[in-house]
Specification:
Helix content: 25-40%
Strand order of the largest sheet: 2-1-3-11-4
Strand content: 5-15%
Number of domains: 2
Distance between the termini: 16 Å
CATH topology of the largest domain: D-Maltodextrin-Binding Protein, domain 2
Structural class: alpha/beta
Shape: globular
Largest sheet: 5 strands, mixed
Order of helices and strands: EHEHEHHHEEHHEEEHHEEEHHHHH
Number of helices: 14
Length: about 425
Amino acid sequence: MTIKWGKPAVCLLVSATIVSGCGGSGDGGKGELGGQVQPNGGEALKPVTLTLYNAQPGAVDFEKMGILEAVKKKFPHITLQLFKREKGMEYTDWITAQTAVDIIYDSTAFTVSSIKQNGLHVDLQEQIKLHNFKLDTFEPNVLAHAMSTNSEGKLYGLPFTMNRYGLFYNKNLFDRFGAAYPKDGLTWDEVYDLAKRLTRTDAGTTYYGFTAVPNNIMLNNQLSLSPLDPKEDKAAMNTDGWKLLLNNLRRFGEIPNNKFVPVTESVKGTVAMVLDSGAISQAGPDLDWDVASVPELPQKPKTGFKPATLSLFLSSTSQHKDEAFRVMAFLVSSEFQAKLTRQAVGTPLADPEVRKAFGQDLPQWKGKNVQALYYYPDAPAFPPRAEQLTNVGVNFTKLLESPDDTNTILRNFDEEINKAIQAEKAKLQAK
């Protein structure tokens, strides 16, 4: 079931500018998006106001990055207005208020829980055909991941931004302790050896050899393993594959004096290596850093992590689906992605020129090994779960905090997930 209504969102918007003029550079008829298609018969286009709900305001600041202005420049007849997810402005709030939203920006992983289960989904196939939109601009595994998030294998959103992982390292600490800098293509074992060497206490300060966000590493793992069974309502973590992944990451936390400190600690100069999307880039100019490729897992050689993307979803509540899709298509085009990635925003596109521009508008990224972020292809998506199955969140950090042996941890975690599934099913049935 999808929701449809037409109540405007003026009272909720950050910006409420209404444009009374119109331009002639928009696309008023069928044509290939991203090109310079003119309106049918040279007709003036009527002003349209579109509303975008930013459900992940911590990921991209649409105003600060000039996205609203870029849309206005590309489509003079369209005004893109924004409101973000915050207290009092959750999905349930604006759905209950019957507020019409045209585009939703949210994690691709939440396609079912946030978009589909709220009845906000629109199969993009019709718009893709209508506008001759080319899907081959996306990395194949990125597109496959977006379509694997639902049991039908449909595309409900266009991947817009992507967390690009790398092994970021503090060159100051490597110099201080006489260790060679990490290079592209290192294995997990080699990174572990470096972490042991660089974890130490010196002049009263503890230096950590390695840290990461365990939830990200495990959820987007290189073996493409899901914690949930794709065909049955049960967990799927008590396996040899998950044992390998847990042991691989767990050993870093077992290095004496090392622990998984927040990745933001890297800006303080006390972390030698951090596997993330670049928190260290926010450090001051005195911290000399660079980046290498993510570590290679011998059991899945030359493979990165599963795509961690955020998508633009066409909302079922939109009264202007054609215009909304045109805006979405523009924002994922090479033309715009080249500008966005220059601000160190990861791109889901395969275009090498777009990738090459990563961070080039920011002084702290100049001269860095940014191609390391694209060194390996993304891991394949795991199979979608059947429509009738129950989805629950998984806290992987708990796996690393347990003192038990790996087999016991995974067995107990399976039981916890199964209980959570049953509790969620009971809650859904009670509605």
